[in-house]
Amino acid sequence: MNTAKRVVRAAAVQIAPDLDSADGTLGKVVEAIAKAAADGADLVVFPETFVPYYPYFSFIRPPFAAGPEHLLLYERAVVVPGPVTHAVAAAARSHGIVVVLGVNERDHGTLYNTQLVFDADGELVLKRRKITPTYHERMIWGQGDGAGLKVVDTAVGRVGALACWEHYNPLARYALMAQHEEIHCAQFPGSMVGQIFADQMEVTIRHHALESGCFVVNATGWLTDEQIVAITPDTGIQKALRGGCCTAIVSPEGVLLAEPLRSGEGMVIADLDMALITKRKRMMDSVGHYARPELLSLVLDGRRTAPVVSSDRSEPPLSTDDREQACTRPYTTTAS
Predict the structure, then answer these.
(1) Taking residues 51-63, what's their average pLDDT?
(2) How far apart are CA 76 and CA 23, in angstroms?
(3) Interval 83-99 mean pLDDT
(4) Can you give the pTM of this predicted structure?
């Protein structure tokens, strides 16, 4: 850790977005940051693509009927950097708190499921994109790349993040584990699928805490009854937009540090005793003494991808190292 502080107070927020206004959701974010800080939190985590809102419409609407709502999401999506990131950075800096926020990021003609980590001084220290959108999400978002599979140093320690079913990709999780994450920030949409989604989510985050030997702070979204009715008047389809919430904080020993929040809006707060990381890893360090890198290892292409690489022929030819940096051919790093 880059701080002498050994106990970190974390807050996981379960909250409903403003489906009618991107600015309204941003206002709720800033308000929740202030509340978490007032409760003594050093870290606050928000749900998946919370700003402006998770595209619930894509889960219940066929693609041919989702065009208008998809275009509206484009209009309200977040440009990074931009007004939304500036406002969140200012709130983080004002309250001296680390913020992990999920947004729909617009990069010209494509939307991405993006996780942003702001340090306590307001600096944006990580922008990563979900590497594989799930099921219906593939009609909404583009794919991220290996450059986002990164753990960053913050005021609360080494922080990593994944969104939703990325947690079912063991190699993505291992990439973060190998970078010695201390606090893993997980984000799910919530208000989907029903209780089975919540049950699976709890198993997933508790398992990652045990396997990584880190704390997991998980935030899920929430829809009010009024919002569900506004999304669809069909009472049968409405069932697909209920349940599926498990906002929780887990210790490196797989223990829930507070009662999970399974319905309604609220905030789960817990103190993270960082000494528990060593206590767990003394017995089982998946990327240390319990690893067998000579038998099993992970190859990670950590480049940020781009559709075009330009070479100015008026300049001297690029060296091999320069070409690799320019992404003209792949390179790999081995996490062992």
Answers:
(1) 95
(2) 9
(3) 98
(4) 0.90
Which active-site residues does the annotation give? 48, 130, 164
Tell me how many degrees the CA angle 18-26-240 measures, rounded to the nearest 5. Answer: 35
Q: Which amino acid is at 97?
A: I
The answer to whether residue 322 scores a pLDDT higher than 50 is no
Query: Residue 58 is inside which H or E element, if any?
Result: helix 57-60
**Residues 6+ away with beta carbon under 8 Å from 216:** 183, 184, 185, 186, 205, 206, 208, 209, 248, 249, 250
Work out whether the CA dihedral 290, 271, 261, 94 comes out positive or negative: negative
Residue 325's identity, in one-letter code, is Q
Asked if the model's pLDDT at residue 320 lies above 60, the reply is no
Residue 317: per-residue pLDDT = 52
Find out whether 279 and 273 touch, Cβ atoms under 8 Å: no
Q: Cβ(166)–Cβ(175) under 8 Å?
A: no
Do the Cβ atoms of 47 and 252 come closer than 8 Å? Answer: no
Cα distance from N-terminal residue to C-terminal residue, the chain = 21
| 267 phi, psi to nearest 5 deg | -145, 130
- How would you label 209-218 residue by residue, b for 16+ Cβ within 10 Å and e otherwise? bbbbbbbbbb
Residues composing the chain: 336
Q: Is the peptide bond before 52 cis (omega within 30 degrees of 0)?
A: yes
Distance CA 296, CA 214 (A): 22
pLDDT at 126 > cutoff 80: yes
Average pLDDT value over all residues in the chain: 92
Burial track 224-237 (b if 16+ CB lie within 10 A, e otherwise): eeebbeebbeeeee
Give the whole-angstrom CA distance, residue 249 versus residue 242.
Answer: 22
The per-residue b/e assignment along 127-145, b for 16 or more CB within 10 angstroms, e otherwise, is bbbbbbbeebbeebbbebb
| Secondary structure E strands in the chain | 7-14, 43-45, 98-107, 110-118, 124-129, 152-154, 157-163, 183-188, 215-220, 248-250, 266-273, 298-300, 333-335
Token pair listed for 219: 């935030």
- Residue 162 makes CB contacts below 8 A (sequence gap 6+) with 115, 172, 173, 176, 184, 186, 187
312's CB contacts (< 8 A; 6+ apart) are none
